[in-house]
Model the fold of this input.
Amino acid sequence: MSLSTFQLVGALIGAVSLFSMAEQIWQFGVSSVLGDILEYYRRLANWSLGWIGWPFDWRLTTFQREVLALQLLCSSTLLRSGAIRDLTYRGFDNNFRPAHVAVKALILLTPLSIMVCYSSITDVLTEPFMEEKSGTLSERARPFVFASLFALLALFALNAYGLSAASD
Done:
């Protein structure tokens, strides 16, 4: 289980996105250093994703931009790993068939990619797509998921103990 540079950077950005979403939902205190990181991340997300909806005169909220950013990270992880290309599903006759293009598009273009990517830990959502001999979808997404969850845990730990104590 090795991480590519893309997966490592994506996992760090995914962790910041999850941390930012959690901060918006529960509105907990953030240390000054992590507050600056979140502010920079939110400005970058606004710059890169804020244009979506301009023809219809509506704007994405901060939470929607963060979900979209995480969805794009998970979709790109699934694409770069080749897991979507090799995606199969189990039919009613218990035989495996290549997944239809519409199923692949549904996973990549909706927040379902977040659930598919992060459920690779337990194979809950990915089990119907796995062949018995190789669970390629979950095996290929797992390094990204573990790295992003570890980075998220590190952000919470730094927020609680490290950076807030150092800034006082």
